[in-house]
């Protein structure tokens, strides 16, 4: 029942925490002023040994913070223990100090960040936060870690020592060692200052350590009814008893003026959020974590209010911090950094460390064949060979370590696990290096095979038929693939081995790239074949035009077709087929052949049109000649004569001209141009006959003109008595016929003469009279209009 009540209270607390989270964040944003963004204050040299000051950051301290007295909050601890994330959370941000999900350190050297912040009581704090590079980073010495710790500690008003999950004996010992070395370092710094006759504000209490808060993140252990600070104090007391009276190490309780401990629960239970905490929002964080974080913040600000700078240390301005920092860096980069081992423990550790180093050196020496520069020119070891070499090297290093520490059990046993770990780490390192060499070797062979394949593929002369191309490339591909397999087969791993099988990886790449190259060459071959086909079509087209242009046009259609058939068969079925033999089996050959056939057919039509045009020109010429002959013949007829005789003579001339045209163009009788022009010739001759007949009428009219003039005068005088043209024309016709009937015996000719006389000589008089059709039309319109008016009147 008690357990149920506890869970109920915890659930209610979580709900309350979540509901109050957002207003708290808004309040934090209102109470937070950033003076400048995080910048790197100190960074290491290339060897990660000496410390270098970032002068641009010093300028910020001297300018932006020249008058403000600052509380300096420093955070130290092992790498990837969450120091940067903790500082961000203390000030309500997520990404000011860099936080990363990888195994590599994100913070190098010491970074600083300045801000003003109000606590829950409205008290303003001028803060300079120091984020530090974590301890135990790869390729970093213990002395370097001690320098970072010492400088951060002596600059800080309040120091946070950050760890993860638990506080064990090694952590206590390491903090005591760092603290003692920092004491000695502070002493050396003060001596150095006195030697330089330098007065630094706050240097008198440089030996005063800041207050210490030990923060244990990701803590989920059960400490019973104890507070975290009580739990830490009990650990320190037990640790002091275990050290014994002869130990030269002092307790951290003798060094730091006050020590508190705070634990923080896991920020989240979601692995993705934990891996990307720099992107996490307040809603993503565990309510228990937020509660404990707020308690930590409250304690830190309370200590800052109660103790000024913290631990009795005075707050410093930016320039004072800059001056102090330069002194500390100079001392840290000077003589050997202070060390504090006891005599025996130092000896044991020294022997242990020496044995470890010698054993690892021996192991590396045995394994050096993998990483030597000369080894890169040789094939790497296969997995079986590597494991054999590694086993021999491991046994040799283990036996050497045992011999070096013979009789020193207290050094041998503690270091044995470390040796095994180091050997395991080095085993993984050399295994990784060997796999890297295998990767490079397989890649080199792959590159050589690809280059060889490209060269041999390039040597294939194109265009060739796809059948021959596929046969050659298939043989070439199999040769290259088998050659690669033969050279690298010893690196083909079993499928159950948890490693990248570079043999398979590059084999697959080789097969894919060979296919890609083959496809590219195949496409190139097809393009060459299509170019050949296109050029062949152009060639036979030009040849065809050349042959046909040599013909003496016009010729008969039958002759033209025979010429086309002869050249068509010669060029398409012989020449084109011979030139494009390489493409006969290709799927796209027939469309190109059809294109060639179409091209020749179009050319035949073109020459057929030209020939027809030539026939037309010849037909027109012969037609014109026939018309000239006709005109010449009829011009010899003396007019006027009787129309029957004239018509008979001209018809004879017409038949003669037409027959002449037909005889001269007999070969082209089936041509449309021949027929068309013949029709035009017949029409033209008819017009010539008509003209000649009209001319004969005119001539005859002049013969009887005296009689017609009498009729003209008479009809002009009688015009007023006529209303209509029709009656006028009839009267004029009767009068004219009466006077010329004896002179012109042929009635058709007489009628034409009279009609011409009336239309020409009495034209003016005729136009002055009404036409019967005009009168009838006018009467019709009047009648329709009258009917419409009557209808509209009735409707109204």
SSE order and pairing:
Blueprint: H1 2-30, E1 32-44, E2 51-53, H2 55-63, E3 71-77, H3 83-90, E4 110-118, E5 124-132, H4 142-155, E6 158-164, H5 169-195, E7 211-217, H6 228-243, E8 259-263, H7 271-275, H8 287-307, H9 318-332, H10 343-371, H11 383-404, H12 409-458, H13 466-488, H14 502-549, H15 557-579, H16 589-634, H17 643-664, H18 672-703, H19 705-717, H20 725-740, H21 747-761, H22 763-767, H23 772-795
Parallel strand pairs: 3-5, 3-6, 6-7, 7-8
Antiparallel strand pairs: 1-2, 1-4, 4-5
Helix pairs in contact: 1-8, 2-9, 4-5, 5-9, 10-11, 10-12, 11-12, 12-13, 12-14, 13-14, 14-15, 14-16, 15-16, 16-17, 16-18, 17-18, 18-21, 19-20, 20-21
Your description of this structure?
The chain is an alpha/beta fold. It folds into 5 domains: 31-332, 3-Layer(aba) Sandwich (Rossmann fold); 342-523; 531-595, no CATH class; 614-697, no CATH class; 704-790, no CATH class. It contains 23 helices and 8 strands. The protein has helices at 2-30, 55-63, 83-90, 142-155, 169-195, 228-243, 271-275, 287-307, 318-332, 343-371, 383-404, 409-458, 466-488, 502-549, 557-579, 589-634, 643-664, 672-703, 705-717, 725-740, 747-761, 763-767, 772-795; strands spanning 32-44, 51-53, 71-77, 110-118, 124-132, 158-164, 211-217, 259-263. Strands 2-1-4-5-3-6-7-8 form an 8-stranded mixed β-sheet, with helices on both faces. Strand 4 and strand 5 (124-132) form a beta hairpin. Helix 5 (169-195) crosses helix 9 (318-332) and helix 17 runs antiparallel to helix 18. The longest helix is centred in the middle third of the chain and has 50 residues, at 409-458. The protein is elongated and about 175 Å long. The relative contact order is 0.05. The model is unreliable at 6-22 (pLDDT under 50).
